[in-house]
Structure prediction request, 253 residues.
Amino acid sequence: MYFIGSPTRSRFWRKDFLNIETYHLYQSLLSGPLVDIYVGKEKRQWSVHRNLLCHYSSYFEAEFVGNEVPKAKRPGDKQRLDLPDDDPRGFELFVKWLYQGQLEDVSELPEESKYDYSVACHKLYMLCDRFDLPTLKNISINQYRRGLLEAQLVPDAEEINEIYKQSPRGSPFRKLMTQIAARQIMDPESEKDAESYRSCFENNPDFAVDMVNAIKTGTGGVLFNDPTEGAECQYHDHNDGDICQIKDKRRGI
Ligand SMILES: [Zn+2]
Prediction:
C-alpha cells in the first residue's frame, strides 16, 4: 500500500507559485476526504485527496461527485474506486505528479533505470487518455521518447505489438511504434528486416499499412529501378548462371 497522508510541499513552493489565491486553491485541494483507489489485478492501493483528483480530471469528478462541485465528506459519498485494468506503474507516476506538480525527468535517472521509466511513462500515458489529462499525456510521451533515446534502446517486436494494439487508430503511440519498426528495418547497420516484425503483422493489416507508410515518409520516397526494364533472367525459369536459351533465338524475343 502506498499511503499519501502528508503530501510533499513542492507544489506549494514552486517558482510559478504566484499569489495567495493559488495558495488557497491548493489548500482546499489538499483538504477534504481521501479516497481509496485499487489499481491493477494486484489491487495496489493508494489513498488520494478526492478534491485533488476531481480538480485535475473530469473522469474522477464524474466517478466521485457526478456533476456536483466536490464538497466535504458526506455520508454515503463514494470513497473507493477499482481500476483493475489500469497499470500501477503508471498510476504511481500519476499520484506523484498530482502531489509534486511534475514528473521526474528521465535524464536525471541512472542509466539502468531509464528504459523501465519509459515503460512506466507509457502506462501513465494510457491512464491520462482515460482520465482526460492532455497536458500530462504530452509530458509522458516526451519522457517515453527521451528515455529510449538516452538508454539507446528500442522496444522489441513483442513490446511494439503490445503497445500498438493497446493504442487507438491514429494515435501518437501507434505512429511512434511503426516508425521505430520502420527505422530498424531500414537501418543498414541493423540485421532486422520485416521478418523480425512478423508477429506485429499477424491479424493486423493496420500495422503493416502504417509501417510501410512510415518507411515511405521516413525515406522521403525512393524511386526504384523500373522492374519492367532490363534484367530479364531474374524472371526466367532457369537457374542463375545458366545459359539463357531465348537470348540467341529470334522466336524467343
Ligand atoms: Zn534467361
Summary: Residues 1-9 have pLDDT under 50 and may be disordered. Strands lie at 2-3, 34-39, 44-49, 80-83. Residues 232-233, 236, 238, 244 surround zinc ion (CB under 6 Å).
